[in-house]
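Posting for a labmate who doesn't have an account.
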Amino acid sequence: MMSIQRWPEQGWTLLQLLLMASFSQAEELLCRQRGDPENPQLLMDGDIMLGGIFSFHSNWKNRRENYTQRPSPLECTSLNFRGFQFAQAMRFAVEEINNSTDLLPTVSLGYKIYDTCGSIARGVRAALALANGNEVTSAPSNTPCIRPAQVLAIMGEQSSSPCMAIATVIGPLHIPMVIHVFFQISYFATCACLSDKTKYPSFLRTIPSDYYQSRALAFLVKHFGWTWVGAIRSNNDYGNNGMAIFTETAQQLGVCLEYSVAVFRTDPPEKIQKIIDIIKASTSKVIVAFLSHMDMDVLMHELTHHNLTGYQWVGSESWIFDSQIAKLDRHHILDGAIGLSIPKAHVSGMREFILDVKPLNSTSADFFTEFWETLFSCKFKQSKSSSSSSGNQRECTGDEDLTGVHNSFTDMSLMPIFNNVYKGVYAVAHALHRVLGCNETCNNKVQPDPFTILQHIRKIHFKTKEGDEVYFNEDGDPAAKYEIINWQPTEHGAVDFVTVGLYDASLASDKQLNLLNKSLFFAQNSKLVPVSVCSEMCHPGTRKVLHKGKPVCCFDCIRCAEGEINNVTDSVTCVQCHPEFWSNERRDACVKKEIEFLSYEEIMGALLTAASLFGTFTTAFVALIFFMHRKSPIVRANNSELSFLLLFSLTLCFLCSLSFIGQPSEWSCMLRHTAFGITFVLCISCILGKTMVVLMAFRATLPGSNMMKWFGPTQQRLSVLAFTLIQIVICIIWLTSSPPFPLKNFQELKDKIILECALGSAVGYWAVLGYIGILAILCFILAFLARKLPDNFNEAKFITFSMLIFCAVWITFIPAYVSSPGKFSVAVEIFAILASSFGLLFCIFIPKCYIILLKPEKNTKKNMMGKMIPNSF
């Protein structure tokens, strides 16, 4: 985890070390010291030695090297109390084990602890010194320089990049003069890359991998609905790898990054200023900071300088529970921050041991002096730095009291990390206990080597005195569990790190993130969850349309088209409704379509029904008049039987229009078209017979003509029957082959279902209409030919006019029927039936009724018979 830095200018030294390590072992090895010796800052002898690598300083003096002479040793600056606390935790664990009668009862542990100053190169030098030692051997030149391991295991480093470099050097490589594969246990290096056992087979850690933390942060961001966030990371292995996993998981969850920038504590001011400018120009209100505490420290100074408030910070475990970062936040920029931390821990006696620093005076005088002067802001008389110190600093006595001191050294907020150091030392001790076969005593004759201990330490599973379980998985990592921390302000202006939730990677995916029922504070101490989205969510009834060239979180909300719905939020598609359903006005639900057909209840259906009944009663009334005056000349003219049959067929024509009204059914569909076809053929056949009678009567008046005997009443009846039977046969064939049937028409109207009668066979339908048309045209032609016959009452004129109306109605019916939607097409067909029926009724019978009722003087045989009409007629 934590800070991983760039390789400093001491790269030359590291390169020298690596080249030395890569020499092949020959038959004879020269045994001599190369480079300056590395001396530990803290040392205690023991039967078995452990190594420790910590950053007692956080920086070093930059120098320009000309490489004409050997570079001078690294000069460390900026004493880091945190690194010293970690070292104290290791010392506490070692001394507790040495005082134990249950663990390694007859074996004492010692330690060599080195300071790396936060330098990768110096960390590698310290690791090689721990592995091989610094003593200048007196062995002759022909004696192999092969000695037992100087330490059994190495505790550290706290940062991922130094751990990677150290693990690469001391792990899989067999270095000259080193016959063992060493292993290291880190307490704070969280980079997921270190779980790769093909590259780092001898690396273990007591802190979870960032793979789980990065995913947990992504789930946390998604939980609060923040889909548009900014990201800042440490420019090292910790930050780059952690942010890469976060970005991948966030994309899977639909979270987008507006920007992703990297920062390192040694960056020039102009680069950090550029990051500040990016934050100011952004539209996202949430910043995910995957930073080491040292990089966050540098960034906080700039944030404070610019008073950059109003942003919701989401932090990694490196800084989210660091009280020193909170103390730097004088403008409350980070108030309401939320993030992950290692679960709280308590190790009895550790706090008192860490604060007891006086015994160090006898261990490392130089380091103790610097530490004491920095801790109490004073100077010893004999201090190397006393000449350059400011004159107003007081003199150190060595007896200062820590009781009134409040700084990062006395702050125990990092106790979970101290506990990780503690568990790492105990893990080595338990593995040794097993290898040495310790019971009441240990087998001191066995010389443990690091490789054997590494095999056993992978299998250990024990509990500390505080009840914490310690074990490693196949990747050398512990179980991934985090507390969710929220920065909440107190009455005194300080910050409380309140645990508001838990994350456990061992649970099912939907149960890993668990927020407790506690009040959360967000940016600017608001209890309302801030909104950070590129585009507002698309509500039900709309769909997302992405902006070209922008992240998927930036989109427009487009209303669903007619017939489509969307009942979820932020959907990219709308769903087509079932054909029997249609979208409602809000486009969020499908409602059943309205079923449309020509019914009796609506106005149009009622009017057509009334017209049909009116035509029926009118026809019946005309028939009644004719029946009452059946013996009058005007009724007996032109075959009264055909007149009554015509009136009967017209009655059927009016009534058949009623079959077109109402909900279509299987029987009504077959009845309406066949009844229409047959009744109209019967009607036209009667008119055709009456027309032929007129023509034949005229021809019969010519000398020598006996045509009337071939077209008497019997022949007229047979002709009507024959013409009608032909239509009946056509209808039978139509009904048996492919009859009309009820159909739900979804295509005609989008939001309605039209119940109509499908024709079945279009050929049958047009055959029925075509036959009616042929008879109507034939009748029209014959009536037209007889229109000027010299009769006092020539019925052919009225037949001609009636057939003209009939043909006109049905010719205009075709385009009107085709272009009318839904039930209106049925209404057009009914109107055509009624119009043509009324045309025939009025044109043929109303003139006769007029004479019968109003002009009875003309209803005489003499008036009916002209000079050219024979008496027989």
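Reply:
Got it, the structure tokens are right above this. The longest strand covers residues 495-504.
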